Amino acid sequence: MSKPAVILLSGGLDSATSAAIARSQGFELHALSLDYGQRHRGELDAARLVAEQLGVRRHVSLQIDLRAFGASALTADIDVPKSRSLEQMHTGIPITYVPARNTVFLSLALGYAETLSAADIFIGVNAVDYSGYPDCRPEFIAAFERMANLATKASVEGRLKFTIHAPLIAMTKAEIIRRGVQLGVDYGLTRSCYDPGPAGAGCGTCDACALRLAGFAEAGLADPAPYHR
């Protein structure tokens, strides 16, 4: 019988690939998506389609409103940076950083996992082709895993030892895309744009779009997602 795993599924390219990797390793997928007040909420529709394509056993979507805190271009009335160079993306932490987002997300995934007696949690963070977010680094993932095994009844009682899987963390975007294609991910279902148009098409110039398009170009493939540029 397959072991259950909780997959943080945003509807973007990385989380879809992370989910496909978990499936390839024989896990039964239980997906968690978060409606946190993000301006690019179309990714939640993408998450539902990706979950269906990958055969997710159960897909939970939770609503939490991080707009109450603001301070990010994704949750407040702040312009999303556009047309930045790769050098600019790799310098400093951009205004699209959502304070403590991955800490919040992993905490909710941990709670979900404990109810399932699932020791494994997958998150699609990447520390190579990314925008410099501190909660995408290996140090953060390792620290959260240690905390998870101190903070839960299942771990304290010795029933579970939690592992936070970040299978993409040391991969380039092109490597992620190639791996996903091998595993049958339909990237036409995924959405990555921080500032999509009314119909959900990507802007083509925000950091997320730029990194995604560069990854497809390096992989020698066309991005099947729609863009309105």
Cα(first) to Cα(last) distance is 47 Å
Task: Count helical runs.
Answer: 8
Strand elements, count: 5
Side-by-side strand order of the widest sheet: 3-2-1-4-5
Based on Cα principal axes, name the global outline: globular
CATH superfamily: HUPs
Q: What is the element string, with H for helices and E for strands?
A: EHEHEHHEHHEHH
CATH topology title: Rossmann fold
Question: What is the makeup of the main sheet?
Answer: 5 strands, parallel
β-strand percent reads 5-15%
Highest CATH level, the class = Alpha Beta
**By helix and strand content, what is the structural category?**
alpha/beta
Q: Regions with pLDDT < 50 over 5+ consecutive residues?
A: none
Chain-averaged pLDDT: 96
Please bin the fraction of helical residues.
25-40%
Commentary on this structure:
With 229 residues, the protein is of the alpha/beta class. The chain has a single domain, classed as HUPs (Rossmann fold, 3-Layer(aba) Sandwich), CATH 3.40.50.620. It contains eight helices and five strands. Strands 3-2-1-4-5 form a five-stranded parallel sheet, sandwiched between helices. Strand 1, helix 1 and strand 2 form a beta-alpha-beta unit. Helix 1 runs parallel beside helix 2. The radius of gyration is 17 Å and the shape is globular. The N and C termini lie far apart (47 Å). The model has no long low-confidence stretch (mean pLDDT 96).
